Amino acid sequence: MNLNQIVWLDFDYKNKHYECEAIPSLAVVNSSQPPAFDIYFNNEYNGTILKDDNEWVSDIDNALVKIISCKLLSFFNA
């Protein structure tokens, strides 16, 4: 998993199309902390998503966290 690269994501949720960037959080890129990404929708910061044990947590809407985390995992496992 290359945690230093920006991931571009697009998906539909509740009849709305989302395009976002998941940018590696500078605080954890070169540390032993779990992976974290700053999430931007339409170039606006919306929160950070952090891998905590076996789940992803964030201050973003829980349903969006699930979608974003699945997209991130599929991107890095591809």
List the helices and strands and how they pair.
Layout: E1 7-13, E2 16-24, E3 36-41, E4 44-52, E5 55-58, H1 62-77
- Low-pLDDT residue spans: none
How would you spell out the order of helices and strands? EEEEEH
What gross morphology would you assign? globular
Secondary structure tally, helices: 1
Structural description of this entry:
By secondary structure, the chain is of the alpha+beta class. It is 21% helix and 45% strand. The protein contains 1 helix and 5 strands. The chain has a 5-stranded antiparallel beta sheet, with helices on one face. The protein is globular. The termini are close together. The relative contact order is 0.20. The model has no long low-confidence stretch (mean pLDDT 84).
What is the compact description of this entry?
With 78 residues, the chain is an alpha+beta fold. It is 21% helix and 45% strand.
Which key phrases capture this entry?
78 residues, five-stranded antiparallel beta sheet, 5 strands, globular
